[in-house]
Every structure is written in structure tokens, then in C-alpha cells.
Amino acid sequence: MERVKGFRDFYPDDMAVREKIFGECERWSRIFGFRKIDFPSVEYREIYKIKSGEELAQQSFSFNDKNGREIALLPEATPTVVRMLTARKDLPRPLKWYSIAKFWRYEEPQAGRFREFYQLNADIFGPDSAESDAEVIMLAMKILDSVGLETRYQIRINSREIMQGMLENLGCTNTGRALHIIDGMHKQELDRFRNEILELLPLGDDSRTFLGLLETPIEIEQVESIIGSSGKLFNGLEERIGRLIQTVKLCKKSSRSSIGIDFSVVRGLAYYTGVVFEAFDVDGEYRAILGGGRYDRLASSFTGDAIPAVGFGMGDAVIELVMKKYGEWSPGRSSTAFYLCRSADITIEETVDLVSKLRDNGMECIYDLSSRSLASQLKDASKNNCSFAIILGLNERKTGTLSVKNLTTGVQESVSISNSIDYLRNLRNAV
Amino acid sequence: MERVKGFRDFYPDDMAVREKIFGECERWSRIFGFRKIDFPSVEYREIYKIKSGEELAQQSFSFNDKNGREIALLPEATPTVVRMLTARKDLPRPLKWYSIAKFWRYEEPQAGRFREFYQLNADIFGPDSAESDAEVIMLAMKILDSVGLETRYQIRINSREIMQGMLENLGCTNTGRALHIIDGMHKQELDRFRNEILELLPLGDDSRTFLGLLETPIEIEQVESIIGSSGKLFNGLEERIGRLIQTVKLCKKSSRSSIGIDFSVVRGLAYYTGVVFEAFDVDGEYRAILGGGRYDRLASSFTGDAIPAVGFGMGDAVIELVMKKYGEWSPGRSSTAFYLCRSADITIEETVDLVSKLRDNGMECIYDLSSRSLASQLKDASKNNCSFAIILGLNERKTGTLSVKNLTTGVQESVSISNSIDYLRNLRNAV
User: B19, B197, B417, B423 - which has most CB atoms within 10 Å?
Assistant: First the structure.
């Protein structure tokens, strides 16, 4: 019996990092006032053909239902979330939704990429503003900051509208193709990229300036002087530049981590219309940790009504690599605080009475299920990485006490059963 | 764009009940010392043909991978968990594992049954004892008790070994078929069931006694007298009866809810070998809320090594129906505690500064993302069901204060910004 290729099993010691990641996702999403949704793991495959682009539709795991209709395992959340949005026009906007779900893509497994992954998605529907753009980016930054990556990553932000405007100012006639080439920029040799993009641009200083901008991330403080020395490139784009700068400024109020403009970030998916952004580890070693942007026209491609939308998605694979790289993750075994050991004189009924009392008071507690000797139980408690052994024997029963042994220090103390709950709670909270 | 048939969307107001259910599953599993695992949503389809029975294999959503190998979306957890177990013989036992995952079955959707559902699974590997049988049942009962169902459900418990023994004592030659008929007992007319099962049993008093036992759930206090008046039915089964009674006694130490013996509970899945149990709402209106049992021979069908195992699974659909039936569930809208309203004189930067400070202190807080009027913001705060509006205007800025309005009572108070975090935290905690 073997596991399907490209898929992962998670044993208890593997779970802790993912529990940490998505625990912070839950916590910060709620603090930011996002509300949780969930959705099927399957959609009719047509939904991906509209806007995700043929590549994603190709990568989906799909099969026919018993009526011969093609069904796909979700390769991404956005089309599904927009389907839910457009099915409920009665819900008052703005809506702030988040979800944590599994997705599947039929790609070759590699570092940071599996055929199955969990992903947080967070989206705001309704307002089209720098505040809403900043709101989702601030959420992304808060999550990265709280899994120990503060100042270890950078947000690279751009605007599809500014890119479109610059390409039009240059006289590029196939902006869609140009954006596609720019999206692939970092996946190939720089010279090859230059040749490819220059084929679509007129010869001249402006095109060279544009190429230079693609290759150099910039801080918002530099933007003014760069615009001044970029000829006609930014003509008519002042308002859009202003909004992008405003977005970055708001994000800087919420996090010390780096955020700057990177004109090479355009995002592959076809449906983005405004701001786009990605997060990378500061050394740029891995693929993007997360990515998102504004997609104001996706809802209207479903229903005719436009609904401004901005959001991001973050999978579990790359962030896990980055956390491990910076050592901000100690795998250490998760464990149960207490192990109740009993001597052979104590009945199992008496033991379960005490175990139940501890558990009903919220104390994590295990006990021996195989009637082993006291010595074996103490060994088992250590093997299970428990912090404390609680010992119940004839002597304890006679004196109405419990012996409590700290398994780290070896120190053993006695506590009266009537005070034991508070005593044990304090012990546990002090670990 | 439509949802796939038999699948469910969960909008924010639909999520709360499931968050409550699985929140309690997480909490009690940890208190009982179970550790979380996770696994792929797909397996090679062969795995279900071994032991789950042909029915489950038939109900699986399955498709061929690019190499033509048949892959199924998981219809249940147990074969996968046992695959993980047998792949890691190095892990010291006993192991207590739980998981919360999605499963899929191609069945006709009906009340309490969807084609996609979440399920808690909790299992203990290693010990074969009444304590371990009781441990998983006690966990199940604690979860049901804490979602408001205490005394509203009953656990019906039985033992496959006792059933096997009784059928052999009767001289039944096809015990597998007999158990299959008993499993279907409550899905058909009683007369029809009687005729079907009597075809496999010899005529006589013992068979009639057996039929009577199947039709009458009993309390453990009655067991002695029932055995006394059941002729040869229980011959040689004293030890197994003793263990079943011991299991029930231990469970009664942990919960006030009802638990009794029901010889008609045998569980459909082919792999159970010992104790089997199900939970039903007290009126018996719905299908089982949860079910489980001992399956000591499943691991050996994978690898040759026997590993004693006992566990249960609980889906989200039936428990949700039962919670709603007993009114132990108020759907009420989940909401964000604070809405920060600003007058037109206050800049967005100043607002985000304050919002970030509140959020960094763990305060759930939203604000207007569309530069609307103060009146609109207050209306929006109510529409979002926020508990408090925090108002920041020129007057507040001048005096270094915030105005805080309780949106339920309408009472408005003023607090100095320097004391605001503690003040707001107290407000929120008092809601």
C-alpha cells in the first residue's frame, strides 16, 4: 500500500508548523474583521476556462461525473469565491471573506510545490480604494510577521494599470503578450528576456528606461525622481502612481518589514486589473511565499455586474521552507502535559475518575491503557514527552494526596487532592 | 456558473455551527492526549477493495491518473490512517491520533448526507483493553456533551465477538451474512427482517430469544438476568461480556449521557473485530451521529503485522441536524467587536495608525475602506453587527481621547487614548 505520488502524509511532528501557520492566519483574519467561508472541493471545469487561463485548467485534476460532465478538483479559490459572491447579491458589501482550503494541481512535484496543498485566501469585495488594497496586504504582512519572518521577507508591489499605461505610452501594440513575457522574466536568462520583450517595443531611450525599471525594484521615496527621469513613460499615470504610493505608505504603518515597488511583478493569472503583489524571502531563494491583487472584472465575467475585488492567496509549502530556513521554527514534539500513573493497588475505575476530573478541568492528561507496571508507566510518560507525571498509589490514597513529578527536573512534590486542580493548572501554565 | 450537485457552499453565517463542532473536537482530542495528523485526499482505489467492502469502493469518486492508475477521493479515513501507521513501524505505541478532513461519497444527497463532508477521526493503536475501548467512546461523549447535546443522545454499544459467539452458539453457519442482515435491520420492515434472519437460524427458543435481544436495547444492570434467561446463547462469552460491561462502566464515569447495550448495532464496515458503537439522538430521528469500533486485523491485511486498533468517526452533517433540533444552536451572526469611525477631518493615515495599534493588541477592528461620511460609517458598523463604534474626530484629537459608543445600548463614553487599550479590552471581554 503506497501513497499517491506528489502527495504528503503529515505525522503529528509534521503538523505543528502548519498548525502554527494557519493558526496565525485564523487569528489575524479575525482581528482584521474577515469572516470565514468554505466551499466544495470540486467545480465544473468550465469555470476555470473563463478567466484563470488555459494553463490552470490544464493542471487541474479532473474527471467526468456519472452524467459525463467534467468536474475538476479546485486548483485555486478565486473563481469559486466569486461564484459564491455573485450567487448572493443580497449580502451587504463591503464583504471581507477568508478561507483555508485544500487545492490540487497536476504539476511535477519540486521544492515548495506539491500536487496537493492548503491555501489561505482573503478577499475584500466592494470598495475600490488604496485602503482596501492596503488592508489585504497588511493582513498578509501581519501573518508573515507573526510566524517569525518579520524583516525576513519583502513585499513587491506593482499595478497592472500602470504597466498597461507605460506599455501604451511606449506604443506597444500587444500589451497582453508583453505582460506575459514580463511574468516569465525571472524564470529565464536575462538576455533572452530582453530580446523577447524588445521585439514588442520600439527602439529608443524610453524602451531602455522601461527595461531598466523592470530590472530594479525601487523604494517609494525614489519614485518622484524616477518619474522625472523617465521621459514620457509615466505620462497620464500620476493618479495611479499616487494610489500605489498611498497603498505602500499605509502598509508601512502596520509592519516594519520591507515593501517596495517592483515593475517586474505582474502575476500570471489573467484576471488581475489593478494592484498586484507578491512576498519573497529577502534572499529571493524561493518562489513567492504569497501573491495577490485586484480583480475588478472577474465577477462581471460571471454575471454582468462588476464588483470591485482585491485579495491574496498563500499556500503552506513555500512559507514552511522559509520558516525553516530562518530557523524560526523549532520542530519540537508536541506533547500532553500530564501522565497519570497508578500503582497496581489502584483500580482502573478510580484512575478514570481522577483522569475525568482533570480533563473536565481542561487539563491535558493521558494514562496507561494496558495495565502496565508503575515503572513502565513512568517510562511511557517520558517517551510521550509529558511534562509531569501524577502518581496515585496506596500511600497517596491513604493521605488524600497526589505525588507530582516534574519529568524535566526530576523534582517530586505532594499536593492534597482537594487543591490539585489549581496546583496542576499553575504547573502547566508555567511550562 | 453553478455549484456541483450534492455539494455545499458555506457563507459566514453557515460556518459558525461547524466551527463550534470541530472546535470542540480539537479541544477534547488534545485534552485526551490525541495528536493531530493529516493525509492526502486521494488514494489508489485498490486500498478500499481490501477491507472497506465493495459498497464503499463503488461510492467513491474516482478517476485515472496520467499513467492510467485508478485514484479515488477518500470515502473514509481508516484505510489511510492504517496505511500511515504501517509505514512507520518506528513510532512507539500506544499511538493516539486524530484528524479532521474532508471525504467524498457518490450517494444520493438527503437529510444529513451530502456528497462531501468533514469528519473527525480518532484512533488508538496498540493496547487491546476495555480502557482503550472506553477512551475513544469517552472522547466521543465529551464532544457531544460540549456542543450542548448532554443527555440528548445515547451511545449504543455492542461487540462483534459476542455477536459471532451467539450466532455460533445458535448453530448459524453463515455468520457474515447474518451480521450483514442485522446491520440492515432498521432500514426495513421488522417482519421482513425477522424472516430474513430466521432463514439462517435453527427453529427454536434460542433463536427467538436472540431475535428478542436484537429488538431491545438493554442497560448494563439488566445484563446478568438476561444472560440467566437466555439458555445457551451466551455460553463461553462470559469474559467478553465482562469486558463490554467494564467498558460501559468506565464511560459512565466521564459523562451523564446514556450508554447501553444494543445487539442490533454491528456496523456495516467489514473490518470491525471487537467493540462497535454508535450515537443516536434520543428520539432516534436521524441516522447515527457517529460510529466506531475495534478493528484489530486491518493493519495485518496491509502488512502481515497485527496492530490492535480502536477508533471512531463523526461527520458534520447529522450532528448539525441534531444540534439544530434541540435548539442548542443559535445561528446568530458572528461579528467583529470594534468599528473605527472617523470624521472627514481625520486623515486615512491617522486612522490606519490607530487601527493598527488596536489590532496589534489583539482587538478585532474594522474601519471604512471607502471614505464615506461619519453617519454612513455608523450605519455600516450596525449592519456589520459590531458591538462598539470607536469615533475619532477633531474634538477627540484635540483632547487626546476616543469616543466609544455601545451599539446595543446607545451609550457613548469618552476615554483617553493612552488608556484606551485596557478600556476596550474590558469592554470586549464583557460582551
Answer: B197
Residues of B in contact with A47 (CB under 8 A): 1
The DSSP code sequence of A153-199 is EEEEEEEHHHHHHHHHHHT-S-HHHHHHHHHTGGGS-HHHHHHHHHT
Domains, chain B, ordered by start: 12-325 (3.30.930.10), 338-430 (3.40.50.800)
Tell me: cis bond preceding B94? Omega within 30 of 0 counts: yes
**CB–CB contact B61 A61 (8 Å):** no
Is the model's pLDDT at A52 over the cut of 80? no
Query: B50 pLDDT band (50/70/90 cuts)?
Result: low
CA distance to partner chain B, nearest, from residue A4 (Å)? 6
Residues from chain B that touch A132, judged by Cβ atoms under 8 A, are 369-370
H helices present in B6-122, as ranges: 12-31, 46-51, 54-59, 78-87
Q: What contacts A8, CB < 8 A, 6 or more positions away?
A: A114, A116, B40
Chain B residues whose CB is inside 8 A of the A3 CB are: 40, 43, 83, 87
Mean pLDDT of chain B: 93
C-alpha cell at A42: 470540486
| pLDDT tens sequence across A162-208 | 999 999 999 998 999 999 999 999 989 999 999 999 999 999 999 99
Which of A352, A379, A382 is best to mutate for the B interface (most B CBs within 10 A)?
Answer: A352
Region A235-263 average pLDDT: 96
- Please give the residue of chain A at the shortest CA–CA distance from B135: A369
What are A63's three cell numbers? 474527471
Global ipTM: 0.92
Contacting residues for B4 by C-beta, under 8 A, at least 6 apart: A40, A42, A43, A44, A65, A71
Report the residue count for chain B.
431
pLDDT at A213 over 80: yes
Candidates A7, A131, A370; nearest CB to B348: A131
